[in-house]
């Protein structure tokens, strides 16, 4: 499978590149990845939006005033509960866990395509441009009314692709 490729960034491609993400206040620094499950907020455009802030039970996400501020993640407060994932209307948040196992990481992401995968299915995981990165195994599918028609998919995958993986290919 082809690996991740850098691209021109959100203004030219529609998706933020790795440098834009690392400079975003919602993207946790690499030094925190080993603490356990953690939200990754890929919001790099100043738009009027704050459901991530109001959904976080830990107060780990701050938008404040004006509402166009970029969300700021306090990685030390974030428990990776995922309440912010389905709350984000832009589908710009996922939770990753680098500590899942010695060789595998975990990602929970929003997935609004049908059909949904079933537990145990092998899926192709993709980067922010939809390019294949690696394969993973679906561990959980949560499709509950509270998430307002935004199912959450949890997949384990090889740890070496921790940062590249963002979602999965449609079935």
Written description of the protein model:
With 171 residues, the chain is an alpha+beta fold. The protein contains 4 helices and 9 strands. It has helices spanning 10-13, 18-22, 51-55, 83-87; strands at residues 38-41, 61-62, 72-73, 93-97, 104-110, 122-126, 132-142, 152-158, 167-168. The strands form 2 sheets. A 7-stranded antiparallel sheet has the order 1-4-5-8-7-6-9. Strands 2-3 form a two-stranded antiparallel ribbon. It is globular and about 45 Å long. The protein starts with 9 loop residues before the first helix and ends with a strand. The model is unreliable at 1-5 (pLDDT under 50).
Q: What string gives the helices and strands in order?
A: HHEHEEHEEEEEE
Biggest sheet descriptor:
7 strands, antiparallel
Oligomer: single chain
Strand order, biggest sheet? 1-4-5-8-7-6-9
Unreliable segments (pLDDT under 50, ≥5 consecutive)? Answer: 1-5
Q: Could you say which structural class the secondary elements and strand pairing correspond to?
A: alpha+beta
> Shape from CA axes?
globular
Helix amount: 10-25%
Strand-residue proportion? 25-35%
**Continuous helix count:** 4
Helix/strand layout:
Elements lengths: L9 H4 L4 H5 L15 E4 L9 H5 L5 E2 L9 E2 L9 H5 L5 E5 L6 E7 L11 E5 L5 E11 L9 E7 L8 E2 L3
């Amino acid at each position: 499978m082809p690996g991740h490729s850098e691209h021109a960034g959100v203004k030219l491609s529609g998706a933020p590149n790795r440098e834009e993400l690392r400079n975003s206040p919602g993207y946790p620094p690499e030094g925190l990845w080993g603490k356990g499950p953690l939200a990754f907020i890929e919001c790099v455009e100043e738009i009027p939006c704050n459901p991530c802030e109001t959904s976080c039970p830990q107060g780990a996400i701050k938008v404040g005033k004006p509402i166009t501020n970029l969300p700021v993640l306090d990685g030390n407060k974030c428990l990776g509960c995922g309440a912010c994932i389905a709350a984000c209307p832009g589908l710009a948040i996922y939770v990753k866990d680098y500590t899942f196992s010695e060789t595998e990481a975990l990602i929970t992401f929003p997935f609004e395509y049908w059909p949904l995968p079933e537990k145990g299915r092998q899926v192709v995981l993709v980067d922010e441009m939809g390019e294949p990165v690696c394969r993973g195994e679906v561990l959980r599918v949560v499709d509950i009314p509270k998430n307002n028609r935004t199912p959450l998919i949890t997949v384990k995958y090889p740890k070496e692709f921790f940062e590249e993986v963002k979602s999965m290919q449609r079935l």
